[in-house]
TrEMBL record:
<protein>
    <submittedName>
        <fullName>DoxX family protein</fullName>
    </submittedName>
</protein>
<feature type="transmembrane region" description="Helical">
    <location>
        <begin position="95"/>
        <end position="114"/>
    </location>
</feature>
<keyword id="KW-0812">Transmembrane</keyword>
<feature type="transmembrane region" description="Helical">
    <location>
        <begin position="69"/>
        <end position="89"/>
    </location>
</feature>
<keyword id="KW-0472">Membrane</keyword>
<dbReference type="InterPro" id="IPR032808">
    <property type="entry name" value="DoxX"/>
</dbReference>
<dbReference type="Pfam" id="PF13564">
    <property type="entry name" value="DoxX_2"/>
</dbReference>
<keyword id="KW-1133">Transmembrane helix</keyword>
<feature type="transmembrane region" description="Helical">
    <location>
        <begin position="44"/>
        <end position="62"/>
    </location>
</feature>
Amino acid sequence: MFVSLVIVTVFMSAVLLVSAGAKSLRTRHITEQMTTLGVPQSMMTYLIAAQIAGAAGAVAGLRWGPVGIAAAIGLTLYFAGAAVFHLRVGDRKGALPAAVLTMAAVALIVLRAATL
C-alpha cells in the first residue's frame, strides 16, 4: 500500500509544481483562463503558494503521516474549489481535470491513513 501512496504522491507533486510554474510565468493561456473564471490576478500568488505548499506537504507526509493527511485535505479542498469555479462559468472541459485531481487528493488521504 505504501508503494501506491508514493506513486500518487509523486504524481500529485509533479502536477502541482508544473501548474505552479505555469501560473508563475503568467502565460496568456493561464491569464485568460483565470479571467474567465473570475479569479483576480492578485490571487495568483496565493494559488501558486497553495500548490507549492501542497506538493511539499504531500512529500513530507511520506515521512510524517499527519502532515500528509493535512496536505491531502488541503489539496482536496483546493481542487474541489477549482472544479466549482470551472463549472460556475460553464467550463466542463476545465472542470474534468480538477475533478480528477480532487479524486487523486482523496486517494492520498485514504492511502496515507491506511499506512499510518
